[in-house]
Amino acid sequence: MSKKRTSPKSIPATLQDVKRAYNEGVEHGKDAGRAVTTAIILTVLADKHGADHEIMGRVWSDVCELSQEIVEGRVKYSDLKDTLKQEYGIQI
């Protein structure tokens, strides 16, 4: 009597493997959301507010610089949100 062959598609995964894959998916989704948001904002600046090539370059440079400051812990995202809410009435 021959043994049943296991499908190569049915590779067992531990709960840790599933959680790791889930967390990677969540992070990928966040990154994609940030990229979409950035593209929307830059497009609005260019199309609706007349930002030219020079302004767009400066804005992008400033966005990258501020992002790096957040990564390095010199600026807090929560502080940015609070400032936008208090000074401009924008709630994120």
Structure explained in plain terms:
The chain is mainly α and 92 residues long. It has one domain (22-88). It contains three helices and no strands. It has helices at residues 15-49, 53-71, 77-88. The mean pLDDT is 88.
Short structural description:
This protein is mostly helical and 92 residues long.
List keywords for this structure.
mainly alpha; 0% strand; 92 residues
Distance between the first and last residues' Cα:
65 Å
Strand-residue proportion:
under 5%
The DSSP helix count reads: 3
Total number of distinct structural domains: 1
| SSE arrangement, N to C | HHH
Question: So what's the overall shape?
Answer: elongated
Cα-atom radius of gyration: 22 Å
What topology emerges from the helices and strands here?
Layout lengths: L14 H35 L3 H19 L5 H12 L4
